[in-house]
Amino acid sequence: MESYYYYVGGEFRCGKQKYEVVNPANEDKFAFFFETEREDLSYTLEKAKLAQKEFSLFSFKERAKVLRDIANVIFDNVSKLAELETKQIGKPLKESLLVDIPLGADCFNYYASFVESLEEKYVYTLTGIDLIKYEPLGLVGVYLPYNVPLMIFGFSCAPALAGGNALIVKPSEYGCLSILELAKYLDRLDIPKGLINIVSGRGEEIGRLIAQSDIELISFTGSRKTFEKISKEMVDSPKKTICELSGCNLALVFSDADIEKALKNILASSFIKQGQMCIGTSLILVEERIYDSFIRKFVDDTKRLNLSDPSLAETNIGPLPTLEHLRNIHNKVKDMESKSGKILWGGEILNKKGYFYPPTVIEVKEIVYEEFFGPVVLVKSFKERREIEEIIQLNPTGLVLQIWTKDLIYAYKLSQLAKYGTVWINSFAQMDASTPFGGMKKSGWGRNLGKWGFFEYIQPKHIGIGLKDTPVSGWFGT
Ligand code: NAD
């Protein structure tokens, strides 16, 4: 069995508590990792402070080199990293290999170019010279979700490093191996020891200690439920937070849409990574006139999805990461059925080794704003524009909205009404390192990616050099 150590202050260490990792596709134990000890976290904070002090003196060009080096080690080792994400989480290998990890690595290249082109500004005002500097915040605690560890590592850590901060990275206990493997490659880079620390272990243990610690910023990606706990944990030492939370994402299909394109994309957005994708679709709303034919085709396409070993290229659906998650999903499906949801496909635990759950389509009579975070999608029809406008606005979450129609003027009007961080019109997963990503309403605040991501991780400082009197000079006549 492979063992994975946590990485603190430039050293690999192990704690007393050891966790075995099970491959959800075949239930074999194949690795273990350790929970970071409380004393090791104190050591990490000490070392990270020193490393951050050193790193803050790096020029923008020198920071860019560090970022490019990180991008390169991720790309150079993408096969091993992708294999680990698949073995621990169960998502199809091609998704980690071709999408998730490259997008995470691209963020480091993007912020390398961004920081290289950055100029701290001198502004000449009526009274003097004003210098605006971009200062780091200091220590940033980065919480990663289990589903796309390296992607979110790129989303959060690349802008945080570009801003000159040091990192305490807390991967999820259900998706930590690729991040712990990355630590081995980071250790070989010429960067201050303690600049990037990876602390493994349970959320309620080591995650809680980070929230309570003396760091300057928390960058959290995960569920709203956990973020509410973290908010309580840091009540005695409040800090800036960026939080990217869950969402009940809607896909709207109007009768004039390009149906084939909508079908293909909504199928992907419903079931990619077994439905464990924050941008995935929770509820499909189809205009009544085309509802029956659209849903028939959607269910037919769902039936054809290949549920199999996630390391195979032809696999569409792999297993869920744990038996507990599978049971939770199944209970939620049964609960929905008992509340008059009609299962159109799936909904049963398979008699198969591994934690596989079939892609499941449930027709509902009432609107339910719920994120399953599993291979389950709800479907419902709608009659008129006023109804759909209300549904969009009543959603308590605001992460992603998909609109499928050829009427771009109306789609634009809807996008204006919608309080969602991302609106895709006739598109899905249209994102890259340069476009902002984040939620509105209960889906969080703060933005990752693009220049907006960078400005979350710095604090602008104004230094005013006086050359003339300001309006209040001599205010009291002295
Ligand atoms: P989670 O909330 O269970 O865990 C997130 C992180 O918090 C993990 O590192 C975990 O170990 C840690 N944690 C758990 N309990 C903690 C506690 N009491 N104190 C401190 N830390 C704690 O999330 P998850 O199940 O890993 O990820 C899935 C969720 O993340 C979904 O709801 C999904 O929508 C969301 N997500 C959002 C985005 C986004 O960008 N908005 C991206 C990916 C995932």
Q: Which features does this protein show?
A:
binds nicotinamide-adenine-dinucleotide; 14 helices; single chain; alpha/beta; Aldehyde Dehydrogenase, Chain A, domain 2; 2 domains; globular; 22% strand; 478 residues; six-stranded mixed β-sheet; Aldehyde Dehydrogenase, Chain A, domain 1; seven-stranded mixed β-sheet
Distance linking N and C termini:
78 Å
Let me know the number of strands: 23
Which small molecules are bound?
nicotinamide-adenine-dinucleotide
- Overall mean pLDDT: 96
Rounded to the nearest angstrom, the radius of gyration is 24 Å
Strand order of the largest sheet: 15-16-17-14-13-19-20
Largest sheet: 7 strands, mixed
Classify the helix fraction into a percent range. 25-40%
Strand residue content = 15-25%
Structural class: alpha/beta
Outline of the structure:
Helix content is 39%, strand content 22%.
Description of the molecule:
Helix content is 39%, strand content 22%. By secondary structure, it is α/β, with parallel strands linked by helices. The strands form 6 sheets. A 7-stranded mixed beta sheet has the order 15-16-17-14-13-19-20, sandwiched between helices. A 6-stranded mixed beta sheet has the order 10-9-8-11-12-22, sandwiched between helices. A 3-stranded mixed beta sheet has the order 1-5-4, with helices on one face. A hairpin with a 3-residue loop joins strand 6 (121-124) and strand 7. The protein starts with a strand and ends in a 12-residue tail after the last strand. The model has no long low-confidence stretch (mean pLDDT 96).
